[in-house]
Amino acid sequence: MSDRLLEESQRQLDGTLPGVLGIVLVRVEAGSVDARLPLRQELLAPNRYVHAGTVVTLADTSCGMGCAASLPAGVETFTTIELKSNFLRSATPDQTLVCAARLVHGGRTTQVWDATVAREGDDRPVALFRCTQYLLRGGRG
Prior knowledge:
Shape: globular
Helix content: 10-25%
Number of helices: 3
Strand content: 35-45%
Radius of gyration: 15 Å
Order of helices and strands: HHEEHEEEE
Distance between the termini: 30 Å
Low-confidence stretches: none
Largest sheet: 6 strands, antiparallel
Structural class: alpha+beta
Number of strands: 6
């Protein structure tokens, strides 16, 4: 793992939704990202459990930072074209979410990523997530 890649990836979150939420990248390398998010009141739904959007943002950010670290030659950037999440349990503000994102398909025009979000210290998933990234060449978007 490159400390420089991790630091640059974390810096890219500054001033964006993931940065505002407080997502912390733990490991970033081609094909793999680990991240964490300490929960707080502002990240909850009105029912006092973690908001689904918080979980999806953590997973999508983890996959996106992995995609950015895994772009093939000639590809400048990417965009998420599809995502899906299955929620299996919830979390409360005294917990921290952790996310493990892994590349499952690295093609010429797309990447497919899977992510598992869990409560830190708990092996049981909170959510299973899959997204497809469309790779953009030459500034097309």
